[in-house]
Amino acid sequence: MPRRPLRFSNLDEIMQEVDQLNRSGYLTHGKWDLGQICSHLADWMGFAMDGFPKPPFPIAILLRVLRATQGKRMLHKILETGGMGHGSPTMPVTVYEKQASPDEAVERLRQTIERLKASNGPFHPSPLFGAMSKEELVGLHLVHCAHHLKYLEPTSIQGSGSGSC
To answer: Of 38, 48, 85, 144, which is the most buried if we count CB atoms within 10 A?
Structure first.
């Protein structure tokens, strides 16, 4: 699937990109539209502040083992390379149905980003990566947002590109 190169250097660039996509339209090169992506991203950003959902028992055991053995190494690789694996499973509660309009999801992501920017913690430890500093947490979300939003290709380039490279 074609994916455009996309990298964010701060949280504000995420919303600039989302607003541009919402305003000008986009082509989807993946399974999710803008509303589904924004809802998913808002969930994962919020978990660090509000607490993570409990995974099913066998997955919880696997996450504990991975966190203890490879979690920090995986986190540092993601932060260093700016990339995440494609097709990785996610918690089903963070997968949404398509809605008629993405506006509510876009606004929820905006509010969650503002909460994260204003928060100094403490943050809930990630089930996979463990405890993270705010810098690591924000870095992870910059990569996660780019990972999903690169599947949406703007149909108009006017004013676009604030977060793309």
So the answer is: 38
CATH code, 11-154: 1.20.120
CA-based diameter of the chain, in Å? Answer: 48
| Tokens read off for 111 | 């509010």
pTM of the model: 0.89
Give the list of residues 6+ apart from residue 142 with CB closer than 8 angstroms, or none.
Answer: 7, 8, 9, 10, 11, 14
Cis preceding-peptide flag for 5 (omega within 30 of 0): no
Could you state, in order of their start, the residue ranges of all structural domains in the chain? 11-154
Q: Are 47 and 90 in contact (CB under 8 A)?
A: no
Q: Is the pLDDT of residue 57 over 90?
A: no
Instruction: Return the beta strands (E) in 54-154 as ranges.
Output: 152-154
> Which residues make beta-bridge pairs with 6?
164
Return the pLDDT at 95: 85
Token representation of residue 87:
């097709």
Q: Under a CB-based contact definition with an 8 Å cutoff, are residues 105 and 164 in contact?
A: no
Cβ atoms within 10 Å of 123's Cβ, excluding its own: 17
Q: How many CB atoms lie within 10 A of CB 66?
A: 14
